[in-house]
Amino acid sequence: MEYHHAYDLVRAIEGTETYQELETLYQKIAQDEAARSMLRDLRALEVGLELKQLSGEALTREETEHYERMMETVRLNPDIDRLLKLEQGLAQMYDDIQKILAEPFNRLVHLLD
C-alpha cells in the first residue's frame, strides 16, 4: 500500500502558519521553566480528569473548579494562551481531515442502505 499522499498531507500541515507558529511557541515555552511547568501541570490535570471520566466517574465540583482556576492562571501567560488557541485550531483541522478521509468508506457503507 502506498502512503505517499499521507506523507504529503503531513508536509502540508507542517507548512501551515498554524503549525509553524505552534512549533515556535513550543520551543519558546520549552526554554521558560515556569511556563513549561505550568503547561506540564495543566496537561497532567487534563489527563487525570479525562481518565476519570472515561472510567465512568463524574468530576466533582471541586475538580472542575480546580481545572477552571488552573486554566485561568495558565492563560495569563500570553504564549501559553496563544498555544492553546492554536492547538484547538489544529485539532479542528485534524477532525475535519478525519471526516474527509472517512468519506470513501462511508459511501461504501451507504451502498448497503
Automatic annotation (TrEMBL):
<dbReference type="InterPro" id="IPR023378">
    <property type="entry name" value="YheA/YmcA-like_dom_sf"/>
</dbReference>
<dbReference type="InterPro" id="IPR010368">
    <property type="entry name" value="Com_YlbF"/>
</dbReference>
<protein>
    <submittedName>
        <fullName>Uncharacterized protein</fullName>
    </submittedName>
</protein>
<dbReference type="Pfam" id="PF06133">
    <property type="entry name" value="Com_YlbF"/>
</dbReference>
